[in-house]
TrEMBL record:
Keywords, in A-Z order: Glycosyltransferase, Membrane, Transferase, Transmembrane, Transmembrane helix
GO MF annotation list: transferase activity
InterPro entries according to UniProt: Glyco_trans_2-like, Nucleotide-diphossugar_trans
Transmembrane segments: 22-40, 298-323, 329-350, 362-383
Sequence ranges assigned to domain Glycosyltransferase 2-like in this UniProt record: 61-227
Annotated source species: Dyadobacter beijingensis
Pfam families attached to this UniProt entry: Glycos_transf_2 (PF00535)
Full protein name: Glycosyl transferase family 2
Cross-referenced Gene3D superfamilies: Spore Coat Polysaccharide Biosynthesis Protein SpsA, Chain A (3.90.550.10)
Amino acid sequence: MTVYLHQYGKILHLSSVVADSLLYALGAFVVVQLFYYLFFFTRLAFYGKGANYGNAMPGVTVLVCAWNERENLTELIPLLDAQEYPEYEVILLDDRSDDGSEEYIRENINGWKNIRYIRINDQFDHVTPKKYALTVGMKQAKYPIALMTDADCRPSSNHWITAMTSRVTEDKDIVLGFSPYFKQRGLLNWFIRCETFYAAVQYLSFTLAGMTYMGVGRNILYKRSVFFANKGFYTHKHVFGGDDDIFLNEVSTSSNTTISIEEDSFVYSLPKTTWKDWFRQKRRHISVSRYYKPRNKILLGMLSGAHIATWLLALATLAWGLITKDHLLLQYLGIVFGVRWAIQWFLLIIINVKLDKTVEWFSFLLMDFALFVYYLVFGFLTMTSRKPRKSWN
């Protein structure tokens, strides 16, 4: 009997040690996550919109790179040509399209007021096609401000240019906009919107904290002088992608970059419709993160790492509590996760309203778990990724 009680005591002690270890580790990673929410994300949650449309309105060149985008151009060009802005131009950079884009543009260009067309027939081994096209556009532009978007995008209003340039000042050379995806039915569309929303929460919040690490090429503005002072995309001209995030990693400072989250500044995009296409696109985007500054890698790695660790430890704690019937442990787990979710919900709901209610608020808990799976999968793929293909898609 004494031996039995001794062994039972050891089991209880071990169970207690495991429970305490799981709970303390979980609490530590939750604290890391909450640090990001309270130090970074609160900046976006309580950021005032209030753009001053009365600011000086410098001339703007809108650059649109396109490769076999005839169908999208038929919808986008009229929206760009109808922008209400005193002095601007739109340069369509057609990179070797063979889908009738050139014929469509040449047939209709005389009917557009602000559209210029440049056909690009060359391709070079030392520079990727889109970066070459953007460089040509930068050199051919008439105005000091460059505003970029893609052919599959749609400005939310005819005040898009105005809303983006309203944030330009003598000290602010770069303006990051928000580009949500159109809402459609299906799990893939929901997840694309979730991931896009949470990515925007991060890069917009980090920018407000003076730590810009990326923007989205679908909606980004900067002074051309910044582009040429940096020698354009020279240091990463061979890297497919990165015309927005790697470039911003190089040129942004703690004070020269700001954001625009006015509703007029939003640019909507058409999402991928198959998991295969989305997976390929996402893997290509993530592959360029290896070129980020060490500080950016550390901060982003800690955030995603804490997200993964929090869920793994929470699931392990839940399993251990159920196996050992440790109701106190389960109660502590509920308290820790409850506090975490309450703070997340509060801030994300506020931000979601500012970002056009991109994600349904009642799905935030499911989004939290889906992002855990996403970080887990793509974290592994990032470490084992191969060189991406040198192609537009």
